[in-house]
Write a structure and sequence with these properties.
single chain; 679 residues; alpha+beta; nine-stranded mixed beta sheet; six-stranded mixed beta sheet; 37 strands; globular
Amino acid sequence: MFRIGVDVGGTFTDFTISNASTGEYLYFKLSSTPSDPSDAIVDGITQILELFDIEASAVSYIGHGTTVATNMIIERRGVATGLITTRGFRDVLAIGRQTRPSLYDTTVQKPAPLVERYRRREVGERLNARGECLHPLDEAELANVLDELAATGVEAIAIAFLHSYKNPEHEQAAARVAARNHPGLYISTSSSVLPEFREFERTSTTVLNAYVGPKMAAYFDRLSIKLRDLGISVAPMIIHSNGGLLSIDTAKRLPVTTCLSGPAAGVIGAAVVGSAAGYHDLVTFDVGGTSTDVSLVVDGKPKLASSRDVAGYPVKLPMIDIHVIGAGGGSIAAVDEASALKVGPRSAGASPGPVAYSRGGTEPTLTDANICLNRLNPVALLDGRMAVDREAAVSSVEANIARPLGISVEEAAYGIIQVAAANMSRAIRSVTTEQGHSVNELALFAFGGAGPLHASEVAREAGISKIVVPQEPGTMCARGVLLSDVSLDFVRTQLTKATLETWAAACDALRAMTAEGDSWLASENVEPGHRRFDLAVDAHYAGQSHEIRVSIASAVGTSLVEFLDRFGAAHRAAYGYDHPEQPVFIVSCRLRAIGHVPKTLEPSYTGGPSVEGALIETRSVYFGPSDGWRPTPIYRRSSLPIGDEIAGPAVIEEMSSTTVVLLGQVATVDPFGNIIITD
């Protein structure tokens, strides 16, 4: 049987195929289809079945990482959405928080709310902070409001009542009325999306869920139908932003959880592959066609964030902490009004793409710069399946960069690479040194189509001495889909001082969530022996406004004293001190329900007999003003032997990516097939 992981990027759609019988991995990629990402998925799987002689009935699993929801929010292509909230809270979305992204920049504009004011409506109902009813829901008024919203053309309704995280009854009743009176509407309630306090973030997340819900549901339905038409009977699983898998039904109900799901899969894959090879502390470095995503892995576990902004809109859901910048292979290079060279954030994307791809692109990109310098194959990419036009790339760099700056084409192309490397290294520092982590203790795990191409330059710029490049790094996010577990996060807000009585209530909430998580895993067809539950409690000292997450071994047998000791230790680790005499407040109880997915990861790489046998050709490659053009050996990665040293300069080619080894660096291949570069 075969398992297929799919990651849809802005430029390419990547596939990793695992043979469950042999443990062998196969890889494939093709250009994305931005108008409908499912077209590239189905086209790719069709070619895979033919290329590798696989029967459709032999496909036992398909996992899908996607940024469709993210792109929908960025481009504001969601559906017309209405918001129904408690009387007096109509403008929560517009008021937001008092924080400013750039304190001294008076030109910064907040994005307009995704729900226009005339579609934000109030109804009579009220709960107090304990979840007790102060005013019952006025269902007659609600019915009128729903009729009026439907008349404006809304396709989705977000319902966010005050204190519904404590008591969901009013929201559930409102959802029933909406479904009964307007069965065609997509309904999203805050108590099912984010049962957690902080009104603005809860409302924003619920609105985003409703905003993308109908189109994401239609996308998932189209994909499922197309796969069935191919003869594949299994329903695809969807990666979400915490790196776990969801069924189609759960993803349709909670599509906001899929924001940044593709990059999250890459981090999960990097953590698993890196740990297997003995590298437990990593900076993941994922460079695709439009962006660079960096994240931190400590002791084999990706760092998580409790929230982040997507196009300026808060999404308060647990997700892998990924720092994204607009620098990728398709990033456009240009000279600004002050004659300064800029790279990104504008991207040529999949269409028209880099100039060298001959698809109508006219502005030079980072990929064009690498082709000009012969770092990328100047004839064809993707194992010869994609022809490139080096002369067109050279002409574009000369006309748009070299001539305006009065420099040579080589200097211009090298400058493009150096500017991009500086931007990428700043992103790495933002998740490492700026958060108290020494880069000396970390390895750079480079993947994505352009990650290994720039890893050596970026590692030197950032002060990292070791680089890990996995097999077929351009398909690492798709491989990460195959290495991810089924998971979903649950939360219950407490907001109470930690006492023996309230700690007992918190443990009761954790046990209730465990039962709820167990039921959800059963609905996802996870066998009881593969189910696991990670428990945590968010808490802070009296007077603080932001909490610290404390892991709990069990909701049974963990005492209040043990919890307070763990909280003090977590506070010391985060801030360097604790206050044992200060009261502690319990904010939220959290649970992650995890369904273990079997993974095959063995040191099975064989390679070729010698480095000399892996040599494809020698070509002249440019390495900067000091080293100039150098005759450089070009190696076929799959033929490199285990353990033999390859001294830079060298270029290592494979289907999905190209790895550059600079002068002074040494590369070897380990038994897992990873390239290890040491500087």
